[in-house]
Amino acid sequence: MSYRDLRAFCEMMRGLGFPRLVSVENFRNPNFPLVAELMAWLVKRYDPDVDVPLDVDTEQDRVIFVRSVAQLVAEKAHVKINTKRLYEADGHAVKEMLKVAKLLYGAVKDSDGEPMGTESGGGGGTSGTEGGAREVPVMFDAQAKISQLKRTRQLATEITVSGAKLYDLLGKEMHLRQARNTALGRQLELADVENNLRRAVSQVEQEIRSTSDGVDNIAQEEAAWDSKIDKKRIELDRVEKRLQTLRKVRPAFMDEYEKLEGEFKLAAEGDVVTSAIAGSTVVMPATSVPPSRGNDGLESSVPVQIDDDDDDDF
After folding, report:
1. What is the pLDDT of residues 106-161, one digit of tens each?
2. Phi, psi angle pair for 283, to nearest 5°
3. Is the pTM higher than 0.70?
4. Residues whose CB is less than 8 angstroms from the CB of residue 287 and which lie 6 or more positions away in sequence, other chains included
5. 3-110 adopts what CATH topology?
6. Sign, CA torsion 175/178/183/184
7. Which of 77, 79, 108, 88 is nearest to 35 (CA)?
Protein backbone atom coordinates (compact mmCIF):
# COMPACT_ATOMS: atom_id res chain seq x y z
CA MET A 1 0.00 0.00 0.00
CA SER A 2 1.49 3.33 -1.04
CA TYR A 3 1.70 6.42 1.11
CA ARG A 4 -0.32 8.34 -1.46
CA ASP A 5 -3.26 5.95 -1.11
CA LEU A 6 -3.10 6.16 2.70
CA ARG A 7 -3.13 9.93 2.60
CA ALA A 8 -5.93 10.01 0.04
CA PHE A 9 -8.03 7.71 2.22
CA CYS A 10 -7.48 9.92 5.27
CA GLU A 11 -8.46 13.03 3.32
CA MET A 12 -11.57 11.33 1.93
CA MET A 13 -12.67 10.27 5.40
CA ARG A 14 -12.25 13.86 6.61
CA GLY A 15 -14.23 15.10 3.62
CA LEU A 16 -16.99 12.57 4.25
CA GLY A 17 -17.24 13.72 7.86
CA PHE A 18 -15.89 10.75 9.82
CA PRO A 19 -16.22 11.64 13.53
CA ARG A 20 -12.63 10.70 14.33
CA LEU A 21 -9.29 11.92 13.12
CA VAL A 22 -7.66 9.27 10.94
CA SER A 23 -3.94 9.54 10.26
CA VAL A 24 -1.48 7.53 8.25
CA GLU A 25 0.24 6.26 11.40
CA ASN A 26 -2.92 4.40 12.46
CA PHE A 27 -2.27 1.75 9.79
CA ARG A 28 1.42 1.09 10.38
CA ASN A 29 0.43 -1.89 12.53
CA PRO A 30 -2.73 -4.03 12.41
CA ASN A 31 -5.62 -2.14 14.03
CA PHE A 32 -8.79 -4.17 13.60
CA PRO A 33 -11.06 -2.10 15.89
CA LEU A 34 -10.37 1.03 13.81
CA VAL A 35 -10.88 -0.85 10.54
CA ALA A 36 -14.15 -2.28 11.87
CA GLU A 37 -15.32 1.17 12.93
CA LEU A 38 -14.39 2.66 9.53
CA MET A 39 -16.10 -0.10 7.53
CA ALA A 40 -19.22 0.02 9.69
CA TRP A 41 -19.40 3.80 9.28
CA LEU A 42 -18.92 3.59 5.49
CA VAL A 43 -21.62 0.93 5.15
CA LYS A 44 -23.98 2.96 7.35
CA ARG A 45 -23.21 6.04 5.28
CA TYR A 46 -24.11 4.14 2.12
CA ASP A 47 -27.31 2.64 3.54
CA PRO A 48 -28.40 3.75 7.04
CA ASP A 49 -30.92 0.89 7.32
CA VAL A 50 -28.42 -1.98 7.18
CA ASP A 51 -27.59 -3.96 10.31
CA VAL A 52 -23.84 -4.40 10.84
CA PRO A 53 -22.54 -6.59 13.71
CA LEU A 54 -20.18 -4.46 15.82
CA ASP A 55 -18.90 -7.18 18.14
CA VAL A 56 -15.27 -7.88 17.11
CA ASP A 57 -13.78 -9.19 20.36
CA THR A 58 -13.17 -12.77 19.29
CA GLU A 59 -11.68 -14.20 16.12
CA GLN A 60 -15.02 -15.73 15.11
CA ASP A 61 -16.76 -12.38 15.56
CA ARG A 62 -14.18 -10.70 13.35
CA VAL A 63 -14.66 -13.28 10.63
CA ILE A 64 -18.44 -12.80 10.77
CA PHE A 65 -18.00 -9.02 10.65
CA VAL A 66 -15.69 -9.14 7.61
CA ARG A 67 -17.97 -11.52 5.71
CA SER A 68 -21.13 -9.56 6.49
CA VAL A 69 -19.53 -6.24 5.50
CA ALA A 70 -18.14 -7.66 2.26
CA GLN A 71 -21.55 -9.14 1.40
CA LEU A 72 -23.36 -5.87 2.13
CA VAL A 73 -20.93 -3.84 0.04
CA ALA A 74 -21.21 -6.30 -2.83
CA GLU A 75 -25.02 -6.22 -2.72
CA LYS A 76 -25.52 -2.50 -2.16
CA ALA A 77 -22.58 -0.86 -3.95
CA HIS A 78 -21.61 -3.68 -6.35
CA VAL A 79 -18.01 -3.44 -5.11
CA LYS A 80 -15.92 -6.54 -4.56
CA ILE A 81 -13.77 -6.52 -1.42
CA ASN A 82 -10.93 -8.89 -0.66
CA THR A 83 -11.89 -10.24 2.78
CA LYS A 84 -8.39 -11.56 3.45
CA ARG A 85 -6.78 -8.14 3.06
CA LEU A 86 -9.57 -6.51 5.04
CA TYR A 87 -8.97 -8.94 7.90
CA GLU A 88 -5.29 -7.97 8.02
CA ALA A 89 -6.38 -4.50 9.28
CA ASP A 90 -3.26 -2.69 8.01
CA GLY A 91 -2.34 -0.82 4.85
CA HIS A 92 -3.75 -3.62 2.70
CA ALA A 93 -7.13 -3.15 4.40
CA VAL A 94 -7.00 0.55 3.52
CA LYS A 95 -6.78 -0.41 -0.14
CA GLU A 96 -10.07 -2.31 0.18
CA MET A 97 -11.79 0.43 2.20
CA LEU A 98 -10.63 2.99 -0.35
CA LYS A 99 -12.94 1.40 -2.92
CA VAL A 100 -16.03 2.27 -0.90
CA ALA A 101 -14.63 5.64 0.18
CA LYS A 102 -13.99 6.67 -3.43
CA LEU A 103 -17.55 5.76 -4.35
CA LEU A 104 -19.04 7.85 -1.54
CA TYR A 105 -16.61 10.74 -2.04
CA GLY A 106 -17.39 10.85 -5.76
CA ALA A 107 -21.10 11.00 -4.98
CA VAL A 108 -20.48 13.89 -2.59
CA LYS A 109 -18.44 15.78 -5.18
CA ASP A 110 -21.13 15.30 -7.82
CA SER A 111 -23.92 16.48 -5.53
CA ASP A 112 -25.25 19.99 -5.76
CA GLY A 113 -24.72 20.87 -2.06
CA GLU A 114 -21.63 21.03 0.11
CA PRO A 115 -21.03 18.16 2.54
CA MET A 116 -20.56 19.13 6.16
CA GLY A 117 -18.19 17.38 8.56
CA THR A 118 -18.75 16.82 12.26
CA GLU A 119 -16.69 17.82 15.21
CA SER A 120 -13.40 15.98 15.58
CA GLY A 121 -12.66 13.96 18.65
CA GLY A 122 -9.93 11.84 20.18
CA GLY A 123 -8.00 14.66 21.85
CA GLY A 124 -5.32 14.73 19.15
CA GLY A 125 -7.01 17.00 16.61
CA THR A 126 -5.48 20.06 14.99
CA SER A 127 -6.81 23.58 14.77
CA GLY A 128 -8.29 22.91 11.33
CA THR A 129 -10.50 20.05 12.50
CA GLU A 130 -11.52 21.04 16.04
CA GLY A 131 -14.34 23.16 17.33
CA GLY A 132 -16.93 23.19 14.59
CA ALA A 133 -18.06 21.93 11.22
CA ARG A 134 -15.66 21.51 8.33
CA GLU A 135 -16.90 22.37 4.85
CA VAL A 136 -15.67 20.73 1.69
CA PRO A 137 -16.27 22.97 -1.34
CA VAL A 138 -17.80 21.25 -4.32
CA MET A 139 -17.51 22.69 -7.82
CA PHE A 140 -20.65 22.62 -9.92
CA ASP A 141 -20.12 21.71 -13.56
CA ALA A 142 -23.21 22.37 -15.69
CA GLN A 143 -21.76 20.63 -18.75
CA ALA A 144 -21.11 17.47 -16.74
CA LYS A 145 -24.68 17.57 -15.43
CA ILE A 146 -26.03 17.86 -18.98
CA SER A 147 -23.99 14.85 -20.12
CA GLN A 148 -25.19 12.90 -17.06
CA LEU A 149 -28.78 13.87 -17.87
CA LYS A 150 -28.42 12.58 -21.44
CA ARG A 151 -26.88 9.35 -20.17
CA THR A 152 -29.69 9.00 -17.60
CA ARG A 153 -32.34 9.42 -20.29
CA GLN A 154 -30.63 6.86 -22.47
CA LEU A 155 -30.44 4.37 -19.60
CA ALA A 156 -34.08 4.99 -18.75
CA THR A 157 -35.07 4.19 -22.33
CA GLU A 158 -32.94 1.04 -22.34
CA ILE A 159 -34.43 -0.06 -19.02
CA THR A 160 -37.95 0.46 -20.36
CA VAL A 161 -37.24 -1.55 -23.51
CA SER A 162 -35.55 -4.33 -21.55
CA GLY A 163 -38.45 -4.44 -19.10
CA ALA A 164 -40.95 -4.74 -21.94
CA LYS A 165 -38.97 -7.60 -23.50
CA LEU A 166 -38.67 -9.34 -20.14
CA TYR A 167 -42.41 -8.97 -19.58
CA ASP A 168 -43.17 -10.54 -22.97
CA LEU A 169 -40.76 -13.41 -22.29
CA LEU A 170 -42.27 -14.05 -18.87
CA GLY A 171 -45.72 -14.08 -20.46
CA LYS A 172 -44.58 -16.83 -22.82
CA GLU A 173 -42.98 -18.78 -20.01
CA MET A 174 -46.30 -20.33 -18.92
CA HIS A 175 -46.82 -21.81 -22.37
CA LEU A 176 -43.21 -22.85 -22.92
CA ARG A 177 -42.62 -24.42 -19.53
CA GLN A 178 -44.69 -27.50 -20.29
CA ALA A 179 -43.03 -28.02 -23.66
CA ARG A 180 -39.60 -27.60 -22.08
CA ASN A 181 -40.35 -30.05 -19.29
CA THR A 182 -41.72 -32.53 -21.82
CA ALA A 183 -38.61 -32.24 -23.97
CA LEU A 184 -36.32 -32.63 -20.97
CA GLY A 185 -38.23 -35.58 -19.58
CA ARG A 186 -38.38 -37.49 -22.84
CA GLN A 187 -35.98 -40.37 -23.26
CA LEU A 188 -33.61 -39.83 -26.13
CA GLU A 189 -33.33 -42.63 -28.65
CA LEU A 190 -30.07 -43.12 -30.44
CA ALA A 191 -31.80 -43.71 -33.77
CA ASP A 192 -33.64 -40.37 -33.59
CA VAL A 193 -30.49 -38.57 -32.55
CA GLU A 194 -28.55 -40.15 -35.41
CA ASN A 195 -31.24 -39.21 -37.94
CA ASN A 196 -31.35 -35.64 -36.72
CA LEU A 197 -27.58 -35.35 -36.90
CA ARG A 198 -27.49 -36.76 -40.43
CA ARG A 199 -30.25 -34.38 -41.49
CA ALA A 200 -28.35 -31.43 -40.03
CA VAL A 201 -25.12 -32.55 -41.72
CA SER A 202 -26.88 -32.85 -45.09
CA GLN A 203 -28.36 -29.37 -44.72
CA VAL A 204 -24.96 -27.93 -43.90
CA GLU A 205 -23.39 -29.70 -46.89
CA GLN A 206 -26.11 -28.33 -49.16
CA GLU A 207 -25.49 -24.82 -47.88
CA ILE A 208 -21.76 -25.28 -48.48
CA ARG A 209 -22.38 -26.40 -52.07
CA SER A 210 -24.69 -23.47 -52.76
CA THR A 211 -22.12 -21.09 -51.31
CA SER A 212 -19.36 -22.62 -53.44
CA ASP A 213 -21.51 -22.30 -56.58
CA GLY A 214 -22.18 -18.68 -55.74
CA VAL A 215 -18.46 -18.04 -55.33
CA ASP A 216 -17.74 -19.65 -58.71
CA ASN A 217 -20.46 -17.59 -60.39
CA ILE A 218 -19.06 -14.46 -58.87
CA ALA A 219 -15.60 -15.33 -60.21
CA GLN A 220 -17.01 -15.85 -63.72
CA GLU A 221 -18.96 -12.61 -63.59
CA GLU A 222 -15.89 -10.80 -62.41
CA ALA A 223 -13.86 -12.11 -65.37
CA ALA A 224 -16.63 -11.10 -67.80
CA TRP A 225 -16.79 -7.60 -66.38
CA ASP A 226 -13.02 -7.28 -66.53
CA SER A 227 -13.03 -8.16 -70.23
CA LYS A 228 -15.82 -5.62 -70.89
CA ILE A 229 -13.89 -2.96 -69.03
CA ASP A 230 -10.76 -3.69 -71.09
CA LYS A 231 -12.76 -3.41 -74.34
CA LYS A 232 -14.30 -0.12 -73.31
CA ARG A 233 -10.88 1.20 -72.30
CA ILE A 234 -9.40 0.29 -75.70
CA GLU A 235 -12.35 1.93 -77.46
CA LEU A 236 -11.93 5.05 -75.37
CA ASP A 237 -8.23 5.29 -76.30
CA ARG A 238 -9.08 4.92 -79.99
CA VAL A 239 -11.72 7.65 -79.82
CA GLU A 240 -9.35 10.00 -78.00
CA LYS A 241 -6.68 9.46 -80.64
CA ARG A 242 -9.25 10.14 -83.38
CA LEU A 243 -10.24 13.36 -81.62
CA GLN A 244 -6.64 14.53 -81.40
CA THR A 245 -6.14 13.78 -85.11
CA LEU A 246 -9.24 15.77 -86.11
CA ARG A 247 -8.08 18.71 -84.03
CA LYS A 248 -4.71 18.80 -85.85
CA VAL A 249 -6.09 18.43 -89.45
CA ARG A 250 -6.94 21.70 -91.34
CA PRO A 251 -10.02 21.38 -93.55
CA ALA A 252 -9.55 21.91 -97.34
CA PHE A 253 -12.17 24.66 -97.56
CA MET A 254 -10.56 26.85 -94.90
CA ASP A 255 -8.48 28.82 -97.47
CA GLU A 256 -11.51 29.63 -99.59
CA TYR A 257 -13.49 30.42 -96.45
CA GLU A 258 -10.89 32.91 -95.24
CA LYS A 259 -10.67 34.54 -98.70
CA LEU A 260 -14.43 34.97 -98.93
CA GLU A 261 -14.52 36.27 -95.41
CA GLY A 262 -11.99 38.99 -96.30
CA GLU A 263 -13.93 40.02 -99.42
CA PHE A 264 -17.11 40.14 -97.38
CA LYS A 265 -15.52 42.44 -94.84
CA LEU A 266 -14.30 44.82 -97.62
CA ALA A 267 -17.73 44.88 -99.26
CA ALA A 268 -19.37 45.53 -95.92
CA GLU A 269 -17.02 48.44 -95.21
CA GLY A 270 -17.74 49.96 -98.69
CA ASP A 271 -21.47 49.74 -98.16
CA VAL A 272 -21.12 51.48 -94.80
CA VAL A 273 -19.15 54.38 -96.38
CA THR A 274 -21.61 54.79 -99.27
CA SER A 275 -24.56 54.85 -96.93
CA ALA A 276 -22.87 57.50 -94.81
CA ILE A 277 -22.21 59.75 -97.86
CA ALA A 278 -25.74 59.35 -99.23
CA GLY A 279 -27.35 60.22 -95.92
CA SER A 280 -25.29 63.38 -95.21
CA THR A 281 -26.71 66.88 -96.26
CA VAL A 282 -24.61 70.12 -96.43
CA VAL A 283 -26.52 73.44 -95.97
CA MET A 284 -24.66 76.57 -97.26
CA PRO A 285 -25.37 79.95 -95.70
CA ALA A 286 -27.26 82.53 -97.77
CA THR A 287 -24.91 84.84 -99.78
CA SER A 288 -25.76 88.23 -101.12
CA VAL A 289 -25.52 88.58 -104.89
CA PRO A 290 -24.84 91.89 -106.48
CA PRO A 291 -28.04 93.47 -107.52
CA SER A 292 -28.95 92.72 -111.08
CA ARG A 293 -30.70 94.97 -113.35
CA GLY A 294 -33.89 93.85 -114.81
CA ASN A 295 -35.49 94.67 -117.99
CA ASP A 296 -37.12 97.61 -116.34
CA GLY A 297 -33.76 99.00 -115.30
CA LEU A 298 -34.42 98.39 -111.51
CA GLU A 299 -31.97 96.73 -109.17
CA SER A 300 -33.11 93.52 -107.45
CA SER A 301 -31.40 91.90 -104.47
CA VAL A 302 -32.61 88.25 -104.01
CA PRO A 303 -30.63 85.87 -101.78
CA VAL A 304 -29.55 82.71 -103.47
CA GLN A 305 -29.48 79.39 -101.46
CA ILE A 306 -27.33 76.51 -102.64
CA ASP A 307 -28.37 73.05 -101.61
CA ASP A 308 -26.27 69.91 -101.83
CA ASP A 309 -29.20 68.11 -103.40
CA ASP A 310 -28.40 69.83 -106.66
CA ASP A 311 -25.00 68.20 -106.71
CA ASP A 312 -26.58 64.77 -106.85
CA ASP A 313 -27.80 65.52 -110.38
CA PHE A 314 -24.29 65.68 -111.69
Report:
1. 887 776 454 444 433 333 443 343 344 444 444 555 566 777 888 888 999 999 99
2. -105, 120
3. no
4. 303, 304
5. Actin-binding Protein, T-fimbrin; domain 1 (1.10.418)
6. positive
7. 88
